[in-house]
Write a structure and sequence with these properties.
- Strand 6 (65-72) and strand 7 form a beta hairpin.
- The strands form two sheets. A four-stranded antiparallel β-sheet has the order 4-2-1-8, with no helix packed on it. Strands 3-7-6-5 form a four-stranded antiparallel β-sheet, with no helix packed on it.
- The protein has strands at 10-17, 23-30, 37-39, 43-46, 57-58, 65-72, 75-80, 85-89.
- By secondary structure, the chain is mostly beta strands.
- The chain is built from no helices and eight strands.
- Helix content is 0%, strand content 48%.
Length: 92
């Protein structure tokens, strides 16, 4: 992602489909809570080409809808549908 910048006190999170376990993205998350939204500038790598994607985020393996497109503080954001994704802390 050319817009990605490392932020302080963040960690990498592997986001995968909750149904077929396909890796969807690696996200730079800050804070202690659950993954509620994924802001586009913080997505490091993605299996889906997010620049050409016009709608909601779907799994490349099973076409399950994982997140809905929206905005937050002026950034393009994918709002995660609860229970549709699995997250795991990734090593650096």
């Amino acid at each position: 992602n050319p817009l990605y910048k490392k932020r302080r006190s963040t960690f990498r999170l592997e986001v995968s489909c909750g149904h077929c376990k396909t890796l969807v993205a690696i996200y730079e998350k800050g804070g202690k809570g659950n993954l509620i939204k994924m802001q586009l500038p913080r997505i490091i790598e993605s299996e889906v080409n997010l620049e050409t994607l016009k709608g909601h985020l779907v799994c490349p393996g099973c076409n399950e809808e994982l997140a809905r497109l929206g905005t937050y503080n002026g950034n393009v954001t994918y709002w995660v549908i609860r229970g549709k994704v699995n997250t795991k802390r990734a090593g650096r």
